[in-house]
Amino acid sequence: MKGSQLVQIFWIFVFSVGYAQQGSFVSVENLSFLEGMTCDVLNATRIYPGQFISKDFGSNNTGGTLIRPGGKDAYPAFWIRDYAMSLETGFVSREEQLHMLLLTASTQCDQSWITQGGSLVPAGAIADHIRIDDSKPIYFPGTYSYEKQGTSAWGTLPPYCDQFYFIHMAYYYVIHFGDNKILLKNVNGTKLIDRLKSAFHTPPVNEKNHIVCATNAIRGVDFGFRDAQVITGNLCFPSILKYRAAKELSELLQLAEYNDSKKYMEIALNIKFSLPKMFMDKRGMLLASTGKSSQPDVWSTALAVYLGILEGEDMKKASLVLANAYHEGTLSNKGNIRHILTTDDYNDKTAWEISMSAKNRYQNGAYWGTPTGWVCYAINQVDPKSAKALADEFIEDLKANDYRKGGDFGAPYECFNSSDYRQNPIYLTTVACPLIVFRKMSK
Predict the structure, then answer these.
(1) Domains and CATH numbers, the chain
(2) What is the pLDDT of residue 24?
(3) Is the pTM of this model over 0.85?
(4) Among 135, 293, 309, 350, which is least packed by CB within 10 angstroms?
């Protein structure tokens, strides 16, 4: 039995016993099912050293295990954000975490350059995904080609979220394993802690409040789970990620005995103060942006509640909007969540204002399990009964369509809409992200 599998079994035992004793937000049976499925999905997403994937993508030559976004043929590379979003499951061993952290650090851009398509890779940028065969960083969505990456369709800058997820990877590793020394490790001649600082300051910001921003001409994808949309102006979701990253970086700087940790806590507080004033609409929903696609954003609203950015009356308003939308049937489908409420679609032809996807497909109106935990957490603040019902719907759908049954079954899917549209089976964040939240809610 591999060491990583022993780690997974240990965590399943610890959490299952703990929640059986304390009483769970979801039933012990459902939580156990979700933990077991997440563990199996994560195993299916592992690419072991030397493992051959296909003629197109070759073997894993990076020197360690990689975790891709999904099983089967979905996304055969190492995606930073999907991995970082799944870390808190506790199912990734220390050795695996260290390898992926240092691989990510080693592919950080150290010299700005312009792609053949005319996009800029700025110094400090973190890859969107990394090839398994030659470890080349692909900084932009939409391709696996190092030479052809970076066209305006996917932004003139790399996605903004990966820089902040890189910090989360390092934070989780250091805190979880108590390895402060790794922060001072030289990676291609630069200490890891300095690489984290460089990454933090790479996405452009509004100088007044540190909110991440984009223009029509200079734009990066705000968050990789909607990279097929054009979103400009001041940006909500990556600013939420930056808030968390600022707090984590502040703590890491203290551990590394740097003297500027206070600066990053001040940035976090500035974002927390500015975000609801800039993005919250009259109902209590946070808008995705202040420019193009400035629409009420379910994912941003729920995550801001979950991370404690929205508090007091702002939190109650936001949570009530989501709870009411759940009752009205405009939020979810079988426990999975839309990016935008059906009542907030831009028009009858598209959910987002500008999208590469057809309406009600992929990121433009399909339903995703990734944010279900955040939404349940938010609804639970004002309507625990509905939060539990939403979580139960989510798990019951996973049971009904469990990929382990074989045949045409494929849950957890990346997203779906109707019986004839289900995309990418055995998708990791669909189960990992809700599991992380459900555990916390069950304590």
Answers:
(1) 48-279 (1.50.10.10)
(2) 52
(3) yes
(4) 135
